[in-house]
């Protein structure tokens, strides 16, 4: 009789919110790293701030919404919502102070040494004051609207993420105090150039005045006849997580547009104030915005450092990473001459690795050649996020205008891209494309394109399946993978998938694909358990996963069981990881590593040693509940041997002992290990392959 397996420990899961904050702390560590070029450090300060904004708008907002229901809900790690919020608040305050300190005490002095200064009004020369007074009068004053707060003027609506001045004034005749709110306009540059060279981002010397300082210096003009006593800067973050009630009888676009209008008025979830904020004014804001004291974050120095992107955009190449030009995949060109993507794919699959391989000369060219090719009969594609001037959308519109059948699934519920995607959907419809919005209750997150072409009386299908969005701009900074293939099995699978997305098909099994919400979790658990059986039988076994987030408890438990069976498990996780590695008797065979660097590690790759018959998958799905249960996600089995070798090299390089990275310890702490730059190594390797040197 088999010995029963001992129960898994209750503390085996790490908290996902704290794990995310640990990820953002790794971003902050790059801002603190004085070995990086100065403006790259500024960039990481901006990324940290933007990340934290979204975390509050979505994750903290979600926790607060669940708390308001009054239900006692515990996270998988056993914490109540109240306990999670308390821990998150404490950790956030610690990180915000680190963030502010590195900017004010380290980055700002180094910027000054490099000739980039952020000054205050009292530091300006008289000639600069005169010029900026004219600038205020002509460019800023006309768009300002001071809003009084008194019995006749209720407290005004404060839009999410806007900078605001809380102004105290006094009537000189009666001595009565007054309170007003003044919004810092977001359609005027946050950092106002003090010198003419800075205005064009070209001068070696560039001096800037924060817009709020310029406005504060001119408050008497906005409140004539009153004494301006004081002013304080504050910023509000609101719940921005949409809850669209999907009804088969209602137009989804109309429902979504209604919810987008409501998003502006979501409840406040965070109040950021300067450390010098008057306690009386702070109490007014707390009362009027209906936030708890725990929701107040005091920020050292400037608020909203996401605005530092403006400094990063300065033309100072000596303060940035050396430019990297993505290479055209060697199989997609002959010298400088582009090859037909279709002819190339008839010879075999092509695995492209962005941003090392150019998106424009691979995936984008695939769609553009299909749009222009008279033998192409149909193009079917999913769009989750794309750029504002998307060449992909332009190509699809041109294909439809040329008489091709074009079917586009536009996911209008892609968070924070809803309005842009509604605009794309309507543009595509006007051009004659068939536009659908996915399945009720599910987001379509997969990245797929299918081209149907007539060749000598035979219909052939060409496909792209990737890990990232069809977005040429992010493809230069996001690390992603994609397969271009003419494999008939993949073509048949994508045909079945699109029939499911556009019609009433209920296809759940495929040849070369795993598709969520029906097939990914069970398919992966089955393969994890197969590795455990192989290890028990003395056959080669091993698991390697690369993804953004690992949260799903069932998959984590399967990985624990595989580790207990002796399977070596290597996890390359950029962001959230709820698995606790290295625990004796639970996960001693599991190693977790994170790499945060110049490019955003975004691809999802899964590898099973499979008794020596290695099995490789790439796709769009992170191992989270939302991806596995509430999204249409696709994983593609990679069968091409050359592509498999490239994927294996990605893991070998990332998991090597001499690579700069962070490793997760059993006590949930991340330790930074110094070494060579993994991404720089891939850049050099790609150039060598392109030049035929490797």
TrEMBL record:
Domain Polyphosphate kinase N-terminal residues, every copy: 13-119
Family: Belongs to the polyphosphate kinase 1 (PPK1) family.
Name of the gene encoding the protein in the UniProt record: ppk
Cofactor: Mg(2+)
Record note on modification: An intermediate of this reaction is the autophosphorylated ppk in which a phosphate is covalently linked to a histidine residue through a N-P bond.
Residue sites binding Mg(2+) per the record: 385, 415
All residue ranges annotated as the Polyphosphate kinase middle domain in the record: 130-311
InterPro entries named in the record: PP_kinase, PP_kinase_C_1, PP_kinase_middle, PP_kinase_middle_dom_sf, PPK_C_dom2, PPK_N_dom, PPK_N_dom_sf
Any one GO BP annotation for this protein: polyphosphate biosynthetic process
Reactions accelerated catalytically: [phosphate](n) + ATP = [phosphate](n+1) + ADP
UniProt xrefs under PANTHER family: POLYPHOSPHATE KINASE
One example GO MF annotation: ATP binding
Residues of the active site: 445 (phosphohistidine intermediate)
Keyword field: ATP-binding, Kinase, Magnesium, Metal-binding, Nucleotide-binding, Phosphoprotein, Transferase
Domain of life (superkingdom): Bacteria
GO cellular component: polyphosphate kinase complex
CDD domains: PLDc_PaPPK1_C1_like, PLDc_PaPPK1_C2_like
Domain Polyphosphate kinase C-terminal span(s) in chain numbering: 340-506, 513-675
Positions annotated to bind ATP: 51, 478, 574, 602
Biological classification of the source: Bacteria, Bacillati, Actinomycetota, Actinomycetes, Geodermatophilales
Function: Catalyzes the reversible transfer of the terminal phosphate of ATP to form a long-chain polyphosphate (polyP).
Protein name listed in UniProt: Polyphosphate kinase
Enzyme Commission designation: 2.7.4.1
Broadest EC class assigned to this enzyme: transferase
Signal sequence segment: none
């Amino acid at each position: 009789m088999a010995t029963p397996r001992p129960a898994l420990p209750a503390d085996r899961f790490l908290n996902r919110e704290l794990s995310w904050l640990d990820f953002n702390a790794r971003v902050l560590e790059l801002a603190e790293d004085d070995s990086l070029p100065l403006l790259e450090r500024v960039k990481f300060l901006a990324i940290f701030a933007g990340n934290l904004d979204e975390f509050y708008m979505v994750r903290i907002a979600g926790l607060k919404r669940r708390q308001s229901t009054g239900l006692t809900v515990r996270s998988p790690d056993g914490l109540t919502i109240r306990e999670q919020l308390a821990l998150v608040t404490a950790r956030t305050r610690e990180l915000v102070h680190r963030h502010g300190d590195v900017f004010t005490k380290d980055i700002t002095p180094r910027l000054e040494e490099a000739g980039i200064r952020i000054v205050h009004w009292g530091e300006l020369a008289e000639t600069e004051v005169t010029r900026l007074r004219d600038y205020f009068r002509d460019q800023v004053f006309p768009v300002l609207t001071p809003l009084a707060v008194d019995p006749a003027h209720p407290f005004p609506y404060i839009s999410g993420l806007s900078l605001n001045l809380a102004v105290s004034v006094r009537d000189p005749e009666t001595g009565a105090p007054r309170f007003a709110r003044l919004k810092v306009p977001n359609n005027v540059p946050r950092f106002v150039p003090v010198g003419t060279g800075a205005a064009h981002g070209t001068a070696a010397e560039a001096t800037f005045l924060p817009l709020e300082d310029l406005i504060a210096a001119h408050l008497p003009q906005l409140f004539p006849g009153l004494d301006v006593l004081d002013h304080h800067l504050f910023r509000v973050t609101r719940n921005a997580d949409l809850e669209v009630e999907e009804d088969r009888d209602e137009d989804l676009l109309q429902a979504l547009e209604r919810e987008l209008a409501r998003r502006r008025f979501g409840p406040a979830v965070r109040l950021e104030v300067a450390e010098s904020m008057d306690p009386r004014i702070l109490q007014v804001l707390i009362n009027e915005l209906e936030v708890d004291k725990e929701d107040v974050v005091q920020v050292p120095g400037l608020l909203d450092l996401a605005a530092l992107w403006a400094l990063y955009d300065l033309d100072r190449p000596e303060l940035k990473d050396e430019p990297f030009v993505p290479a055209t995949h060697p199989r997609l060109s002959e010298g400088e001459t582009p090859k037909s993507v279709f002819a190339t794919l008839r010879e075999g699959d092509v695995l492209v690795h962005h941003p090392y391989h150019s998106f424009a000369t691979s995936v984008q060219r695939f769609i553009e050649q299909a749009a222009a090719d008279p033998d192409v009969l149909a193009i079917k594609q999913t769009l989750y996020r794309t750029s504002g001037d998307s060449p992909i959308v332009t190509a699809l519109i041109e294909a439809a205008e040329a008489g091709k059948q074009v079917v586009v699934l536009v996911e209008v519920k892609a968070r924070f891209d809803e309005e842009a995607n509604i605009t794309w959907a309507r543009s595509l419809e006007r051009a004659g494309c068939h536009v659908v919005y996915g399945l009720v209750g599910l987001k379509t997150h997969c990245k797929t394109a299918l081209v149907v072409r007539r060749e000598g009386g035979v219909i052939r299908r060409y496909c792209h399946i990737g890990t990232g969005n069809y977005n040429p701009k992010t493809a230069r900074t996001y690390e992603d993978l994609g397969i271009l293939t003419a494999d008939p099995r993949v073509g048949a699978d994508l045909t079945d998938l699109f029939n499911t997305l556009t019609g009433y098909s209920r296809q759940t099994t495929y040849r070369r694909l795993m598709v969520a919400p029906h097939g990914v979790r069970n398919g992966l658990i089955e393969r994890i358990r197969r590795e455990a059986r192989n290890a028990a039988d003395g056959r080669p076994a091993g698991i390697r996963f690369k993804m953004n987030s690992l949260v799903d408890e069932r998959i984590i438990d399967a990985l624990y069981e595989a580790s207990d069976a002796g399977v070596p498990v290597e996890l390359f996780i950029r962001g959230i990881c709820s698995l606790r590695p290295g625990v004796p008797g639970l996960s001693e065979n599991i190693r977790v590593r994170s790499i945060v660097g110049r490019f955003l590690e975004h691809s999802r790759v899964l590898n099973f040693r499979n008794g020596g018959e290695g099995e490789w998958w790439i796709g769009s799905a992170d191992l989270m509940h939302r991806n596995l249960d509430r999204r249409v996600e696709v994983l593609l089995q990679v069968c091409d041997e050359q592509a498999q070798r490239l994927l294996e090299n990605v893991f070998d390089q990332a998991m090597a002992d001499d690579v700069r990275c962070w490793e997760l310890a059993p006590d949930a702490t991340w330790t930074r290990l110094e070494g060579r730059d993994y991404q720089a190594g891939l850049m050099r390797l790609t150039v060598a392959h392109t030049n035929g040197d490797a």
